[in-house]
Amino acid sequence: MVQGVTAMGLTAIDLGLRGATSGVFLLIILVALLHRTTNQQALLGMAMSAGGLFYAITTAPFFPKSCWWWVLPVLSAQPAIFWLWARAAFDDDFVLKRWHGAVWLAIVAFGFVLTLGWARWPALAGAGGRVLSLITLVLAVAAAVQTVKTWRVDLVARRRRLRLAMLAINVGLIAVVAGAGFAAIPVAVPGGAGSFPTALCLFVVAMLAGVGTFAAPMAVTANGATAAIAPGDFSPQARRADRATTGGIVVDPLLLRRLDHLMTVERIYRQEGLAIGTLAARFDVPEYRLRQAINEGLGYRNFNAFLNHYRIEDAKAALSDPAQREVPVLTIAMDAGFQSIGPFNRAFKAETGMTPSEFRRDALAQPQTVSGSARDQEIGQRRRDIG
User: Fold this and answer.
1) Is the pTM of this model over 0.85?
2) Where would I find the H helices in 246-373?
3) Do 269 and 279 meet the contact criterion of CB atoms below 8 Å apart?
């Protein structure tokens, strides 16, 4: 009798957690739709929230098993959505491509083949299920690697605080599901004891996702409406909104002036392997203060993007110099602080819309002026802004 009451209570808590989880995920989707956010991170976030909502409902106690033949293939591709979301959330230069969608469709199709073939070829379907579990683990590891890879250069305090917790729980959940696939153990048996930990984990994930979404900075548009700030948006509205969400902390203007002198006069960005820790040690300030200065004072979300701005300006000046007409592009890139030609070409084209060779050709074809370079004018304007 007592065991029956305990099981009923556990099932009730399970259903309550799943209901709350579904509500949070649904609210995230509605908020994104109301703000009409169309950047790739928002779209992937909506897809991931929809998947979490779908998973919370379909693995709940009393959900009919007869529906699992079409549910499981869709859920099996959710790790691919999570991997893409991690790329978009933590890599400001990431761009969705068609092959990313093809990977998701391939996993869904593979899941349908396994589900439909389970009754006729159980042994083959079981092997396919282990392959699907392996794919899940690979995608989870890829998402974790993306987090670790970009954590040091991330300048956004809110994103740095949330990313590890969010990814740890998501990767843990995916690993449990995938591990169960290897061992042929049902993780979320309807009404079973294995369902409650899944519900609890989903609830925590939904809470973290909600905090990350509803704490996102909002910018006020010209007509008074609000809009979510997209990753990589360095507009004045985005900078003011980022500062507003951090409590309006004022960045030390002396630190900004010292930073400007180090970058524009001493050109420390040319130093090989320059890290934010090295720069903080040079100023004898904690890393978090320097991150805050670059992010909130100058509007950069990524340390590499901050360095590349100066490096590209340096390279543009060299490419525009008739005296360096014969200097190879690789030499100019290395002198500016880039380690190889590939990252230089990508960063240069993203900044200017042209390849370095195209920029040089156009710059050298124009009449040379003696009124000072655009770089000098920009530096002067930046110093006036800081001062």
Assistant:
1) no
2) 253-264, 276-283, 287-292, 298, 303-319, 329-336, 341-352, 356-365
3) no
